[in-house]
Task: structure prediction
Amino acid sequence: MNVRNSGPELAQLLAAEHHRLYRMAYSWCCDTALAADLSQEAMLRALSRIDQLNDPQKFQAWLYAILHNCFLSHLRGRRPNEPLEEIVLAHHELLECVESTESASERNEIVRCVRNAICKLPLDQRQVITLVDLNGSSYAEVAEILDIPIGTVMSRLYRARQALRAIIEAQSAGMRQQPRLRVVAREN
Result:
């Protein structure tokens, strides 16, 4: 497929990638509204710059590089006294306040714990682990997307996985120590 010369095909391709772009943006910023804005901005930039795509086989990596640049632009545009880690931690604390019901499935609980743990990682580690482990990008693709050496990708991924494991283990230990309330039906 020639991505550059096909308006309808390009629109279909972008539409198919929108959910993945949103998911990746959310994993980086941990904010639903910002993730929606970032993924939308990335799609608009991709449409306006399709002529810059050198290799149509690398379309997805090219899109994620655009998303990364949109995210960096957002970070540069923030107020100087508003550090990203404080925003992410505040968002994480808000998520922890929301109690899950006993009827929530175990899978949803695991997903929530992993998402919360990913939000606690430093941004550079969060980007690498989500691109490799959630998106399935190769190390070379991640290096190209983030414009960093492949060795840096590997070391960040190693540190991210170690940190993620420690965070999840700490969360699991905390959950085992908390007493759970049970609803007991009364017999009349």
